[in-house]
Amino acid sequence: MGKHTGWEIEYRTHFDSIVDEYEKTRPEWIHNIYDDIVEYAKPHLDENAIEIGVGTGKATTPILNIGYNVTAIEINPRMAEFSLNRFRNYNNFKVIVSSFEDALLEDNSYSLIYAASAFHWVNAEVGLPKALRLLSPGGTIALFRYNEIASVTDELYNRIRKIYNQYYDPFYEIPYRQPVRQTHDDFCLPSEIYKGYRFENLQAFGFHDVTMKFYDVTLEYDSNKYLAFLDTLSDHRSIPNHIKIPFYAKIKEEIENSGGNYKVDYVFQLYLGRKRV
What we know:
Elements: H1 19-25, H2 31-41, E1 48-52, H3 61-66, E2 69-74, H4 77-86, E3 93-97, E4 110-116, H5 124-134, E5 135-148, H6 155-172, H7 190-197, E6 208-222, H8 223-230, H9 234-237, H10 241-257, E7 261-274
Parallel strand pairs: 1-2, 1-4, 2-3, 4-5
Antiparallel strand pairs: 5-7, 6-7
Helix pairs in contact: 1-8, 6-10, 8-10
């Protein structure tokens, strides 16, 4: 039986073994997010930015194209190597292989610090005060992630949840973190912010002009891509094969029996704050 959640901070290093799978299956970030960052931060050319947990660089290209000089922090060496190769033709990109907590960076030197589905791997009690120190006066922190929400009328969704009840719940000895049908206001609650970012609000760490923006997105997966996506999630990868193999087989069977594709509803979320001038 499992005695953990699969989301403990030490699992952030598991991504080095799934670089290609991560790149192929993780969702792309919609451009509206970057438009709203520009509107909020009002950047000038050649300003410095930090990306926490660059991964394969899925969130990076628009920031580079805006004109920021991006210092990417990545704890996984193979992920860092992938992103370095991906952006080899950009002269405004570099990588430091480190956790954000341990990275040596200059205070008051960055006008933007951002993280795309990565900040929950940072110890917020260390990471947020550090981010505040690193930002120049008036600088912006931008944290974005995506949240699956329940499709209450989707029979395929409901059948897949029953498979989780059979395989996932007994292993972890806790119910799967099943999505529920939530409003945008729900995601602003401190308890929901904690679930996504591992802290309750940016104001408590000295940021001001705090706001949250939302984007409704539906993504469609075939059965193989959906299972590949699931296997990039640390809690799923932690399940031993004698449970995971039949678990995944049942999910695949349900998707195939429903026409071979699975539509998943998400709310993409952007959480913004500013360092006081």
